[in-house]
Design goal:
homodimer, Glutamine Phosphoribosylpyrophosphate, subunit 1, domain 1, 4-stranded antiparallel sheet, alpha+beta, 12 strands
Chain lengths: 302, 302
């Protein structure tokens, strides 16, 4: 039997280590474990990497703990604009959406773009209209309301407008037993974001990338740094063109390149052998991975 | 004196060779020549690559012959949604906008994002509001109306909805006498485009990329293929990690990878020595380049 692997993240740098009390830590670990198990069980039963990555991300979107789907940050105008992407490493096909509102699972809409169109990135009301035509599940604004995120917006508004803090994102990468890979990422953006800003999450090559030849990657952190570094595709190129291992490539991108530019964040990635790398350069990254050989990792602090 | 170079394109594949009568050919060549001269003169006078690339693209945006700015294609809803990006190879900073309306020069708005924000990609009404706050020049819908584009929309509507033809784009890449590089791309999208679709032009790493270490690249063609290939950054990685020349890297990406995937289009690029590569795999690419050593190229057909 071939190895198969799932890795997930629930974002990086968006909460101070001191705020993670023993009680909250328990709740976070339980959520990570459930997201991981939900996706990994699919792989065990012969499911595809694409379905496993999407399923794990949908769990994290549905859980209000994380800044994606239900728990999305409030933007400047006090509503939720969400982005997501998913890429199939076998076919090299990707689907993504940006600035969508009231979509319960943005990653499911990204998957529809992948499956049902020749496009890669649809945005705003156009993307929502496409989802409605295909019976995607929508929710009222109240569904996305969480008291904690609302208080976060008020705190952020008292500081600078459109400041770039709170880097919550969720993501998953998978290798299935057929040797196919996939990556998926979803985010609610940062609190008080303005001007229709789009970050790295829905950008193929920056926040999300998968290619059966080498790896699948999902990023989290200061989106602008990951966009300018073309971070996810850089990991692929360092492996494919320079012969670096998955870990070496992820560490070079996150710990050297992005770190030296002043960016904070991290990434999760898997390679063709089912190795997982969970790399970050900040205080916190919610992360977990599991493979068919029994290798298992889970953590929040470094 | 160091070499310096400007290369420009006015899109690929968006017109059949048979439609380029001798009269129209003359008009196209005059426009290419003027765009090239406008940007190149800046470089001669010690201007920056960033300013030269932006100036050349603004000329092409202002010229209704090309699908960007004034000559933008009509979308499905019969208005113009435009995208643009610009990247500075010295600082690694990029600015981009997508789905903006009534902006006379989308590349100038992208430059404002680069200069005046910490963001990379702003979209839609948010991006327009940002432009208005900074006194960007806007135009009424009538400014963007061209009879030819309107007839093109009617023809496209009679075919399939949201079909993916008409790949008009404009772009410029430059190396200045200080050794700095820049890339800029602007597009009106394809006729009858729908659902808030965004192509490769405003995506850093896909349609636009610049890095003083190796090259500056601007793409044109089937956007979705260039996005999934992360085409512009792939050229950089093939040079930086694998030691390919500029021409070898561009040809591998356009003539092998994108061509084999079924995509049509091309790219213009410059390297640190001021060499220019103008590579495409289709019937038509409007293109020109000029450097300080007197090398000059201009063409439409292969």
């Amino acid at each position: 039997m071939n190895n198969f692997t799932l890795a997930i993240h629930g974002g990086s740098c968006w909460i101070a280590p001191a705020e993670i009390t023993p009680e909250r830590e328990k709740i976070f670990y339980a959520a990570l474990d459930e997201a991981l198990t939900t996706g990994f069980d699919l792989l065990v039963r012969g499911g595809t990497a694409l379905d496993a990555a999407q399923t794990a991300v949908m769990y994290l979107e549905d859980n209000p703990l994380f800044n994606a789907g239900r728990g999305s940050a409030f933007n400047y105008n006090q509503f939720h604009e969400m982005d997501a992407a998913i890429m199939c490493g076998q076919r090299g096909r990707a689907g993504a959406v940006a600035n969508v509102r009231n979509v319960r699972n943005p990653v499911a809409l990204a998957r529809m773009v992948l499956d049902k169109t020749n496009n890669v990135l649809l945005t705003g009301q156009g993307a929502e209209a496409f989802g409605r035509e295909h019976n995607l599940r929508f929710e009222e604004d109240a569904y996305f309301y969480t008291e904690e995120r609302f208080q976060e917006l008020q705190r952020t508004k008292r500081q600078a407008p459109a400041c770039n803090t709170g880097k919550g994102t969720v993501g998953a990468v998978a290798l299935d037993m057929f040797g196919n890979m996939a990556a998926a990422t979803s985010t609610g953006g940062f609190p008080n974001k303005n001007y229709g800003r789009i970050g790295d999450s829905p950008i193929i090559g920056s926040g999300t990338y998968a290619n059966n030849r080498a790896c699948a990657v999902s990023c989290t952190g200061d989106g602008e740094y990951f966009m300018q570094a073309v971070a996810a595709y850089d990991v692929y190129c360092l492996m494919e063109y320079k012969g670096l291992s998955l870990r070496e490539a992820c560490e070079l991108v996150v710990l050297d390149k992005i770190n030296n530019a002043g960016g904070k964040g991290g990434m999760i990635a898997v390679d063709t052998q089912g190795n997982a790398a969970l790399v970050f350069n900040c205080d916190v990254m919610f992360r977990a991975s599991k493979d068919a050989r029994g290798e298992c990792q889970m953590g929040i602090l470094p």
